[in-house]
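[09:14] KT: can someone run the structure on this one? pasting the chain below
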Amino acid sequence: MKQFISITLIVIMVMGFSSVVLAEGVTQTSDVSIIGTVESVNDIDVDVPVSLNFTIKEDRSIEWASAEIVSRASQPLTVTMVSTQPAVLTPEEIAAGYVQAPALVADNAFTDWDNLTVEQTKSNIAISINGKNLSVPNQVLGTLDAGTPEASTLPLVGSALYGKAWPNTAGQSFKYNMVLEIGPAE
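[09:31] RB: done, C-alpha cells below
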C-alpha cells in the first residue's frame, strides 16, 4: 500500500510539473470593455441683460450703458443674435413717451449720415452690437468660455450711425426687441 501511495504521489507531482511546463510560452488574450458615461448638461447658467440702453444726447453724440452676458455654464457657449425688430408699442409705452422706432438699416445705407433730413433721421438708424449690424439676422455676437469655476463674460458694446436732424421735441424713447440664442459652441 505504501508503494501505491508513493507511485500515486510521484504521478501527481509529475502531472503538476507537466502542467506548469506546458503552460509556459502560452499567451492568452482577453477583451476588456472600458465604459464611460458623459452626463448631459441640464442647465446653461447665463445672465442676460433685459435691456441695452443708449441715449442720443443734445450734441447728437451717443452714449451706451454698459452691459454684458455672464456665463457660469460648464461648457463654452456661442451667443447669436437671431433677429432684432422695432417693438410693437403698448398703449402704456406710448403714454410713457415711446415713439415708433426707426428702421434698422445697414451701415452703408447712407454715405453721409451727418446730413440726413428730418424724415430720413426719424426713419433710419444703423445699430451694431460688438461690431455686428442688427439689421442682419443670425449673427454671432461672441462666445463665452466654460465658466467654471470663474464666470465668463461677453461685453455687449454698442455703436450706431444715425442722422443728426432729430425733431426738437421732448425726449423720445424707442424700443427694439432682440432675440438671442445661447447654445453650446461648435
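[09:33] KT: thanks! The longest strand covers residues 77-86.
[09:34] RB: yep, looked fine to me
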